[in-house]
Amino acid sequence: MDLGxxxxxxxxxxxxxxEIGDLRISVTDRCNLRCVYCIxxxxxxxxxxxxxxxxxxxxxxxxxxxxxxxxKIRLTGGEPLLRKSLPELVASLSSIPxxxxxxxxxxxxxxxxxxxxxxxxxxxxxxxxxxxxxxERFRLLTRRGGLRIVxxxxxxxxxxxxQPLKVNVVPLRGFNDDEIVAFARFARExxxxxxxxxxxxxxxxxxxxxxxxxxxxxxxxxxxxxxAIEPVDASHAAETAERFRFVDGSGEIGIIAPVTxxxxxxCNRARITADGKLRTCxxxxxxxDLKGPMRAGASDADLMGLIGGAxxxxxxxxxxxxxxxxxxxxxxxxxxx
Length: 337
What we know:
The chain is α/β, with parallel strands linked by helices. It has a single domain, classed as Aldolase class I (TIM Barrel). The protein has 10 helices and 12 strands. It has helices spanning 55-68, 86-94, 111-121, 135-142, 147-159, 180-190, 216-226, 291-295, 300-312, 332-335; strands at residues 22-26, 72-76, 101-106, 125-129, 166-169, 193-197, 229-232, 242-246, 252-256, 269-272, 277-279, 288-289. The protein has a 12-stranded mixed sheet with strand order 7-8-9-6-5-4-3-2-1-10-11-12. Helix 1 (55-68) packs parallel to helix 2 and helix 2 runs parallel beside helix 3 (111-121). It is globular and about 55 Å long. The chain starts with 21 loop residues before the first strand and ends with a helix. Residues 1-7 have low confidence and may be disordered.
């Protein structure tokens, strides 16, 4: 049964009236870096390769999600460029009618050599993660190295026409919060959009604490003190970032504050983990298996039923600021950002 043939269902709505619109697909839980707030230094346990969804399975489930109302796709990991022949997946997903925006989040280490193939395959946008501009600090944070490689990849991506090019920064109190202004300056000088993301309790090793959290309001004030900024209207209701442009017209930054300024009320995102589980919230304690039914012969209609049921039960929001908050068993690297 081809649910996408010649028609499109009404978008799925959850119990709070939120329409599904955005799908994050983790293509692997593996990463070449070992960032202190994400993956432990000791050898992590990754999914066996045969437990990952195949490209054919990813294309199939994406078509079903698009038929349900999704128009924006983001590939994540782990590090997605560790997945062999990733441009082939990009090409198959970009060709699905109804996919209006296909993006990827990467740490940038392997990006420069893949840029041409990704662009030819139909990738629209890139987010590159970078938490420090200091080489020695980069090595401490990632337990590896490669700052120069990432900076070269950012500039090459910009020059190849990936616009807007976004650089994601997670400020950590006492570690890199003294670089907030440096990153604002970087946004202006390099003509990229720097997005500051509050540290969330999804890391390995129980590192997170409120003492390490740098609130979005503090980030905004620090940047405004350096150079005046003003709000930019959101491009759509479900946008996660508060956007600001510099008043003198040179550059833009964004602030994503899921802890201190939760945007759950407009959340339209679903996530597929690399091993084929559907999650409707990063902090959900529940997930729905799609891989098992697919490999057991489920029809597209069967899978649509599972997706629709999960979306209908989507939580009102996370409970990070509640006494009832329970950390998920999975970390960010195994869920996909």
